[in-house]
Each structure stands twice: as structure tokens, then as C-alpha cells.
Amino acid sequence: MYKELKKIKIKNQFNFTINNSLDEVCNASEAGSGVFLVYDVTVDNKELIMVGSTGTIQNDGTLKTKNGGLYDKIVNGHQFAKTGRKYSWPAQMKLEKIDTLEVAWYETFNDKNKIIPTFIEGQILQNFLDENGKLPKWNVAF
Questions:
Q1: Angle at alpha carbon of residue 75, lines to 61 and 120, rounded to 5°
Q2: Where does the pLDDT of residue 80 fall: very low under 50, low under 70, confident under 90, or very high at 90 and above?
Q3: Is the dihedral of CA 59, 63, 66, 72 positive or negative?
Q4: Long-range contacts: 64-72, Cβ < 8 Å, 24+?
């Protein structure tokens, strides 16, 4: 686990296969904002393949969220095409022969934590870049 995430109290994870419905297996918060990490667990060791976040901190220190929070960002956020992940992830998994994804999510900005979601996302991506010389394969840019 990344050290930036150790103090986050509201967190969970779920597994997703091509045979699942992403909107049914996703247990992420519909009200919370934060980061999510996507791992390919098909391989012998878990491989981080994507990092994402949701939630914007305003000038006055308040959080601006889109309806649906982390849940909506994971399930309906666009990736690989102009379509939600609930459709694009299974297609990409089939293409890459990925059996199972593990999605870990962390609520980084709430009453207990005040950590900007994109800040944590950037730290994790920077650590990955330092270790691997590139971003996770499903992150197009940052």
C-alpha cells in the first residue's frame, strides 16, 4: 500500500470480472470524494494499472463534488472511449486478457481527512513513475 493512503480511514475494495456488472459490484461511496486504484490481479503479483480521483477543493476550502461521488466516477467515468467504465472496462479486459480487476478506493476529503484527491492521485502516480519510469498502463496522461 502507498504510504499516502495509510491514514485514510474510510476505504474499501472490490473485485470486478467480465462476468460482473460494475454498477452492482462497486461498493464505493456515492457521497465521498477521493482516489481509486485499479489493479490487474490476473498476474501472479498485483499490478497497478490505473489511478483516478474525484472531487475538487474550492478556494474557500470546501469540497465540490459531482453527484454520485467515487461510485459514479468509477462506474460511469469515461475511459478508452466516450462511454462509461461499466462498458469500456469489460471490453478492455477482454482485449488484454485480464480476468479480474481489484479496485481499491479511499475517501480522502471528509470530516476526518482534508487531503485534496488530485494531490494524492499525483503523489501515487509520481511514486509509480519514479519506480517504473512510466505511468500505469491505463493512465493516459497526468
A1: 35
A2: confident
A3: positive
A4: 65/31, 65/33, 68/30, 69/28, 69/29, 69/30, 69/31, 69/32, 69/33, 70/28, 70/29, 70/30, 70/32, 70/33, 70/34, 70/36, 70/105, 70/107, 71/26, 71/28, 71/29, 71/30, 72/30
C-alpha cell at 88: 469500456
Q: Which three cell numbers stand for residue 110?
A: 471528509
pTM for this model (two decimals): 0.93
Instruction: Give the total residue count for the chain.
Output: 142
Q: What is the pLDDT of residue 106?
A: 95
Q: Residues 107, 14: contact at Cβ < 8 Å?
A: no
101 in helix, strand or coil?
A: strand
Question: pLDDT per residue over 11-62, tens digit each?
Answer: 999 999 999 999 999 999 998 899 999 999 986 789 999 999 998 888 998 8
63-64 and 100-109 strand pairing: unpaired
Closest CA to 76 of 67, 68, 85: 85
DSSP state, 89? H
Packing angle between helix 85-96 and helix 69-76, nearest 10 degrees?
Answer: 50
